[in-house]
Amino acid sequence: MAKVTQQNGVSVASVSNKMSVIIPVIVAILLYQDSYSYFKILGIILALLGIYLVTVKEKTTIKVSWVLPLILFAGSGLLDATLNFAEAKVVDSNQLGLFTPTAFAIAAIFGIVYLLYKKQIPSKKSLLFGLVLGIPNYFSIYILLKALEGSGLESSIVFPINNMGVVLVSTLISLIWFGEKLSIKNYIGVAISILAISLIAFSNG
69: which of 16, 104, 186, 203 fits an S-S bond (Cβ 3.0–4.6 Å)? Predict the structure, then answer.
């Protein structure tokens, strides 16, 4: 995600990451017999359109190559699908508190081995911002797993609402905190995303 942001810009990284929600939704419907209705299908289609319109920018000076964004799209989608599989088939409800730190510990081990192989020592700034990013990332995955387990919602509803929620909150923060200007297209995307959330939630009855 960091590499795509550097090479292609924030908009391309956001679109590639968040539109990957279609992968766990399809997996949930095909493998876990999640229900599908006209409202849910329409909501998911509108979700993809809304995510694109919210994150796309009018102008970019960055030359876009679609190899890394496609890898990010597939990787993000497979990550969500794997989390769903772990919650549904592997991890007991009383083990969710152990599963998340175990996954992060394994990631840390791989990262340390990679740094040793490259003979790199992370700077204090990198460690600080890694901690700032890691803590909310840890709790976001843990809460997502809890939502899949105990919310009463199907995973094909949880993932679209989660992804659109991230996009909408990020947009709101960038608008208020950083003074980012939104285009008419972005505002239309916000409205479509809200409509999509309503349709997907309504499809659960």
Answer: 16
| Phi, psi at 183, each rounded to 5° | -85, 170
For residues 195 and 99, what is the distance between their CA atoms, to the nearest angstrom?
Answer: 34
**Which residues constitute the domain of residue 41?**
2-93+150-202
Quick one: which of 179, 202, 191 has its CA closest to 40? 202
Q: How many CB atoms lie within 10 A of CB 192?
A: 21
- Residue 74, pLDDT > 90, answer yes
Tokens of residue 139, six digits = 């709790």
CA neighbours within 13 Å on the CB side: how many for 203? 24
Is 64's pLDDT higher than 60?
no
Residue type at position 5: T
Residue type for position 97: G
State the Cα–Cα distance between residues 117 and 17, nearest whole angstrom. Answer: 29
Instruction: Classify residue 103: in a domain, yes or no.
Output: no
Give the chain's domain count: 1
